[in-house]
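ok trying again, last paste got cut off:
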Amino acid sequence: MFFDSWHDLVRILIVGGLAYVGLVLLLRVTGKRTLSKMNAFDLVVTVALGSTLATVLLSKDVTLTEGLLAFVLLCGLQYVVATASVHSPRFRDLIKAEPSLLFYRGRFLTPALHKERVTEDEVLAAVRSQGKAELGSVEAVILETDGSFSVISGAGDSRADTLRSVHGFADARDAATTT
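nice, full thing came through this time. structure:
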């Protein structure tokens, strides 16, 4: 239970070291985007790479070559999807979610909160985590495509250009200007 053989430990050291070096080299070749967490797809690839590394390290049934091929496959698919997303708006819309506006200029946007399954308390926690003590100092809170919250400080009557691609912004802006 605590120790089977020196052979197993040596295998982990050798295969683990080589798999790690192979993964690092592959990540350098495929670029920074491979491990970004810009959306849910990116997060899945990152987790899958970690899971694959663990499997290569600990499973005697998976060879180093099989593990390296799995790394190449995952990084290659990530590269293809990211490239296609950049060049094809239709493909980008198919695989990527939109960020969602949850709070805007003093109002919680209840339909958006319900749609995204987020509570007001979770929005307040995101605001606090940004060091804000008052909602009056917050222009907007956005649920980003990777599941993180962005808290935008009060901008007053500015156009809030960074919110233009956020789902629900146009409606919330129009509602805020008519009330």
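cool. The chain has seven helices and four strands. The helical segments are 6-30, 40-58, 64-87, 89-95, 110-116, 120-129, 169-178.
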